[in-house]
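HUMAN:
Could you generate one sequence with tokenized structure?
ASSISTANT:
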Amino acid sequence: MATTDEELNQLEKDLRQLKIEYEMYFGGGRPRPPVDTQWRIEQFIKRYSERGANMNFGQRFRFNNLSQSYSKCQEVYRKRIKQKEEGFVQRHYGAAARAIEAERARSKPPETESHATAGAAAGRKQSGEYVMACSDPAQESEKIKELYAALVQAKQQAGEKTDQLTMDNFQEFVRLKTQQLKQQKSAAQVEYSVSIENGQVKLKARVKS
């Protein structure tokens, strides 16, 4: 049986997952809101609200913070769902989709951007792939979240399963891969790309000087 701390860790993971799934829904990457994840979180909060006396001070403090975070997120999501239903849709989930929308708006292919310009943005969409460069994943969590969202969306478009893909595992993979390539190649940055080739999703990593 899981301990209280372990279940609080799971609640925190579910909250991060819920945010990603909602952003994908609002960005067009999911056909429906993430009701399953939301229901799981609400059941956990209800259960622990009824047994708060069994938690120590630190656990109660953490639980209250997570509950407040969920309430604030739900307030934002309700407003965005209302906007979506009324036809006012902001089709984006961070810098990844902003780049996609900009790409669609252009009538001809963009000029090749410099490494400096590319590095200033979290990621970019070019030639059917999403590209992102990072040097320290531990300090660039937003970039990793956007890369993860682009990967999940690509897999869904390609009809590939995503149930075994989690944000925590992906963050750890990117951290280790970046560290490995930087050490092997004496590089300052590692560039990741997500693309669909011959109907299959490809996640590639290469060093940047």
